[in-house]
Amino acid sequence: MSQQNNSYGEWILKYRFLVLGLITALTMLGAAGAQFLYFDNDYRVFFGKENPQLKAFEKIQQTYTKIDNVNFAVDPISGKANAPEVLAAVEELTNIAWQLPYSIRVDSLSNYQHTEVEGDDLIVRDLYTDAMSIGADEQALVDSVSTTEPALAGKIHDKQHRATSVNATIQMPGKSADEVAIVAAAAREMAAEIEAKHNVKIRLGGVIFLNNAFLESSMLDMATLVPAMYLVILIVAYLLLRSIMATVLVLFVVVPSIMVAMGAGGWMGIGLTPPSASAPTIITTLAVADSIHLLVSMFNRMRAGHSQRDSLLYSIRVNGKPIFLTSLTTALGFLSMNFSDSPPFHDLGNITAIGVMAAWIYSIVLLPILISFVPLKSKATLAKLDDKMGKLGVYVAARYKSVLTVSVVISVGVLALIPLNEINDDFVKYFDESVQYRQDTDWISSNLTGANQVQFSLPAGESNGVSDPAFIEKVSDFTAWAHNESVVTHVQSISDTFKRLNRDLNAGDPAFYRVPDTRELAAQYLLLYELSLPFGLDLNNQLDISKSSTQVIVTIDDMTTNELRAWIARAEGYLANELNFNVTAVGPTVMFAYISERNIQSMLVGTLIAVFLISGVILIALRDVRLGIISLIPNLLPAALAFGLWGLLVGQVNMAVAVVAGMALGVVVDDSVHFLSKYQIARRELKLSAHDAVISAFNGVGTALVVTTVILTAGFAILAQSTFGVNSYMAMLTGIALVIALIADMTLLPALLIALDKDKKETSPAVGAPEIGTKEAPQNA
């Protein structure tokens, strides 16, 4: 095996120009796919095609007017939202909002279709016009209607007059990827125009700006985090290697790895989302780790008196197998993301897996070739760290029983904290408080209405059945039940319209604010009302075409995912048990409420398969069942301990957390593979005892493990700065797991090896052990 490895290194250097040309051509071919990359900014992309909540939502979207919207929330700045100057701003904004691209409906206080009766005629008109010259009687009408009419109060207008809004319904054709950005840009221009003319502040919310926040978050991360990542890598690599040329060489592994990975994403037709857009940052950290192992081993060998060429060949030989194994196990960990119920994580896993394997190729092919062209010097920085690693190895080996005991006690204590974690997939809180969408939506939730809408489609059972008084009563009962829920801020219900029409067509008598007595009467009211409505303000957002079902939309305050699921279950239970409606709640809010649960269930299988495959790879590579089984403990433990610490420090987890276990497993295995590889060489080739082999492994690979962990942790710390909470949580949890993995591989793993991998005739341990690759080690090792 060693001859093959030596032959490989010699062959690469002999034909370096040919190989360099070939790998350059392949890199350009792979990177060419990047031209096909695009940003997918539809929040629905987070849900798989077979997701039941998505299917139910798409069905209701086909039945009624879509709820995709731009919500212009008007902040009066000073005074009340019912003041004439604010009403004038609303009136002007309502008129120009029809000009938004793909706008099909605009609802506001000014164009609310107020009903009143003159003689035998039903008059349906805008609530007010020409706000600046509004009279006292009309002002009183606006004040009354805006705070009492169910269609307005708590949704379009705040009952305390703190805010009002103009809601534009958008129906995009779905023909190009930039439709959301076009609508958002136009809405911002309109908001700026109104702010310039009137003393108001416009807050922008709604589904369009939710989608746009996903887009802008992806672009911001790629524009800020990737450059920051390179800067950190350059600084950390230089501080550790103390070699400008070696640091530059690292970039020649990182950059093409990213180019090929992102190009492959383009060839696969992947649309970038915040998770998949974080792939370059993750690939950078992983690609650097491969390079560092090769360089550190080479510098150690050079410091022992060997030439650069001999040290390079030696480093290729001793690191070839572990770098391949760590790359393969890392790729398997990321590929486990394909079991996620959320497609963006499939994309992240696939792009990163390709990048990791590309980094392996560049580390063992391109990096050695480039090293052969430039002179490098080993600096004392690594020597000092090597010395500390050797002392740490001696200390751990001498006290392995105490180390093992302390490790077990701490691990049990931290694992007990896992239940403190609570699932919370509030899509608004996916975005950092610095994001404008988050700021505006939080303000809207506090001053106007909730950000979460839950839709219920209630079937009447027959064409025109919505006019049946018995059916309307059921809808009214559910509407009343929802209004009595403390978390509900608004209920849009056709039953309120029927009651209002019945009252107004009976001389405005409040006693008639009830469901019409007969089906014929209700149908007549509905027909008369619909014929009086202007274009664009029909009832298609509440009734299906055949009038055989109606949509009730319940707007609720912000709450945790668990609370939301409990409320949904309560609402569905009331509809089924009290009103005999076996319906399911739908909507973006509902979809996000269940995505974590579905993700955890799907990733459980993916993580188990990843554990099986990664463990199998390690067992086959080590050819030692005992070592393979021992390695499972420090490999599986870090992710679990990370969740325990997270429960203590944060306690809130989102859909990204489900994929962390599989991903982190693939990454944390790297340290143990390198440690076990050096340990095994010491046992088999240097014939050392378990005790001395542990010390030898510390001397041989301890520095590289610390260096790579520092770089990996720095990389994930950069990603943790993402304004997108899913990426941030994923990065922080993985970073915690990496630090724990390093601690476990330098304490628990060596203690387990000494305790469980002893030979029957093993004698008392020596004080120290030779370092792999130094003068004391055989040259043909």
TrEMBL record:
Asked whether the UniProt record includes Cell cycle among its keywords, one would answer no
| Membrane topology according to the record | Multi-pass membrane protein
The segment annotated Disordered runs over 762-781
Q: Where in the cell is it found?
A: Cell membrane
**Annotated transmembrane regions:** 17-39, 222-241, 248-270, 282-301, 322-339, 351-376, 397-420, 603-622, 629-649, 655-676, 697-719, 731-756
InterPro entries assigned = Acrflvin-R (IPR001036), MMPL_dom (IPR004869), Mycobact_MmpL (IPR050545), SSD (IPR000731)
One GO cellular component term of this record is:
plasma membrane
Limits of the SSD domain: 251-373
- What EC number(s) does the entry state? 2.3.1.51
> Per its UniProt record, what Gene3D superfamilies does this chain match?
Multidrug efflux transporter AcrB transmembrane domain
The entry sums up its family as follows: Belongs to the resistance-nodulation-cell division (RND) (TC 2.A.6) family. MmpL subfamily.
Q: In its UniProt entry, what is this protein called?
A: Exporter of the RND superfamily
Specify the species. Answer: Puniceispirillum marinum (strain IMCC1322)
